[in-house]
Design a protein that fits this description.
This protein is an alpha/beta fold and about 325 residues long. The protein has 14 helices and seven strands. A seven-stranded mixed β-sheet has the order 3-2-1-4-5-7-6, with helices on both faces. β1, α2 and β2 form a beta-alpha-beta unit.
Length: about 325
Amino acid sequence: MVAETTEALAGAPNGTALDATVGAGGHAKALLQRCQDWKLIGLDADPSALDAAGSALDNFDDRVILRHARFEDATDVLNDLGVEQLCAAVFDLGVSSPQLDHPERGFSYHNDGPLDMRMDTTSNRPTAADLLNSLDAETLAQILRENSDERYAKRIAKAIVAARPLSSTAELAAVVAKAVGRSAGKQHLVRQHPARRTFQAIRIAVNSELEQLTDAISQVFDRLMSGGRLAVLSYHSGEDRQVKLLFRNLCGQQQTGRPGLPPPLEAPARARLLWRGVQTPTELELQQNRRASSARLRAVERLAEVAPFREAA
């Protein structure tokens, strides 16, 4: 959804933009081509992605700064660079096609490879194999439910524990497929591999993708200038729920209170939604890239701060 994301952000004032998950540089390149007075800071936890982004953005010279960093470290990077305000920011969450296409990264259930799944292969984070071979069935089931809404979480978790030790993506995919079963697999997700949600959930756990998401986006929003815009592309319900709730809060939309308790206080609006709900990929894009089918785009614009009213002395 490069075109939709670029269109959403292009209405922001001139300044410095942030691509918090620059990947191969697709969104960054489109933004720099469209907004020729902008500069851009691109972050990514994956060193190989930064190499690809550097090649894609080489023609933009001093308009681009790339840094090896996770998106939750954006504030530290901006402080180090002396950037106080942003005109726009984009978060493109999840795993990228180049990561899926390299079996040695361990993200794909279609191609056999080691159970790694770390975005940053230089880090000392536990790999997918470490988690799958050490966590108990109850914890694994919780990860599957919370990170991917897996309806067969308990069944899959028990099968993983029984099949240990696991060392390859092919082994994990086979264990999940057998645990789900043929009839359950048809109900689970039409035309999608029954291990899809398991791979998604374990990848999210390995990289702690949901733990810092709301805080990271909130901190980047706080850096936006008046009229600055923020867009987030999410790919599963757990991500999208966090983004939806955060954007509602930023827009001052009162949340439903708990029964028997006073309603929550309504916060002043700090942003406005650029559209209601989500934008999804066009049929043309889906024909060209089926992996985009789960993409959900939301965007907000920061409003001017209103000073609190004070009575004259």
